[in-house]
Amino acid sequence: MLSMSAKMIERPQQSSSQISLYKQAYTPFFQEYSIMSEYNLVTKKCLPGLYVMPSASSPLLWFGVLFIKKGLYQGGIFRFNLEIPETFPDCTCPRVVFESKVFHPSIDIATGEVFMNQAFPEWKKDVNHLWQILEHVLQLFLSIDVKDPVNQEASNLYVNDMDAFANRVKECIESSQNSLFDEPTSSDPYYLRFNQYDEKLHKTAREALKSEIETKRSHHVSGLSWVRPGSLEPFSQTSS
């Protein structure tokens, strides 16, 4: 035991250049594991109407689609990309950029990028998560904030002419719906694609999903009662 301890004490110190090489070699693995953990958190949050899928070519790019189910933007089907910095998680705030044209005070009309500085002035890896960014984007459509707009026209109309604002929003909703089945802008196999409903193609899958839901409901266990009807005394029910 003493001999082994002596050998450990006498172990030559690694140089800073060696440590740097080790970090460079293992950083991609740690990063990918971190992003996988983030994606698992997103799936557990079940954000309503929001779907994301990491790109097949890079875990730093996620494809997303947002189905707005209520509010001024109800009916909108907006495509976006979540762009994660190469130095994640030691990085600045990841970016969300809409492919769909979205008329909104917090979305740059020219680039489609969502303004994040107010919600995430500083990205802290031990505090912030990717699901928080996605939740923030979802909330932008449900609760419109015009305090620090990047689309000044949208902000002005929202404050001063709600009818005109609603008309512009309606235009982008209709545009998003009409372009849902367009040719994909990306050849990535994990890009989210949509096809027109085909009875022959989709009926079987639809019925299978309905059957699975009904099976889960029928097997739901709510627990056993050990109280005899008409009594408040616990364990008064005899087991059979």
UniProtKB/TrEMBL annotation:
Every copy of the UBC core domain together lies at: 30-178
The record, for InterPro entries, names: Ub_conjugating_enzyme, UBC, UBQ-conjugating_enzyme/RWD
Which superkingdom? Eukaryota
Signal peptide segment: none
| Pfam families noted in UniProt | UQ_con
Q: What is this protein called?
A: UBC core domain-containing protein
